[in-house]
Write a structure and sequence with these properties.
This protein is α+β, with helices and mostly antiparallel strands. It has 3 helices and 6 strands. It is elongated.
C-alpha cells in the first residue's frame, strides 16, 4: 500500500538487554584486568598477554552481540529473518502457518516447501510481549496471503 506506515521489525527484548549488558561487562572486566595485571610486577603478565586477552574479549563480545542481533524485518514482498548465523528472505505466499506453542523457545514458520523456519526474534522468554508479537506476525501473514481471484 503506497503511503502505508512500515511495520516495525520483530526483535527480542530480554535476550537483547541481557546479552548487551554481558558483552559490555566482559569487555570492561577483561580489558581492565589485563591492564592491571600488565602493571603488576609479580604477575608475570606481559603486553602480549594483554593483547591476547583483549582480542579474546572483543571476539566474545562480538559473538554475544550477534546472538542478540536476531530480528525479523517486514518488507513489501515478505519477511527477512536474521537468525544467529543465516539470514533468509521468505515471500508472504510461502508462509503456510505461524506456530508459537508448546515448549518451543521461539516462533516457527511453516513454509510451503515443507521446511520450518525458526524466527528467533520472537522468543518465549519475553512472555506476553512475545505472544503479542506472534499474533502480530500471524495477522501480517494473513493480510499478505495470496487470495484466489473471484470471478
Amino acid at each position: 500500500m503506497p503511503g502505508a506506515v512500515p511495520e516495525s521489525a520483530f526483535r527480542p527484548r530480554r535476550a537483547r538487554v541481557v546479552g548487551l549488558v554481558f558483552a559490555v561487562g566482559i569487555l570492561v572486566v577483561m580489558v581492565g584486568m589485563s591492564i592491571l595485571l600488565t602493571f603488576s610486577p609479580q604477575s608475570g603478565w606481559t603486553g602480549q598477554d594483554t593483547v591476547s586477552a583483549v582480542v579474546f574479549a572483543v571476539l566474545l563480545a562480538g559473538v554475544l552481540v550477534r546472538l542478540v542481533a536476531v530480528r525479523a524485518r517486514v518488507t513489501a514482498d515478505g519477511l527477512e529473518v536474521r537468525n544467529v548465523v543465516f539470514t533468509r528472505r521468505v515471500a508472504w505466499g510461502a508462509v503456510v502457518a505461524v506456530r508459537f506453542g508448546g515448549a518451543e523457545p521461539w516462533l516457527t514458520l511453516d513454509l510451503d516447501d515443507g521446511e520450518n523456519l525458526a524466527v528467533m526474534a520472537v522468543q518465549r522468554a519475553d512472555g506476553e510481549f512475545a505472544q503479542t508479537e506472534a499474533r502480530r506476525l500471524a495477522r501480517l501473514v494473513e493480510a499478505h496471503a495470496p487470495r484466489p481471484d473471484a470471478d
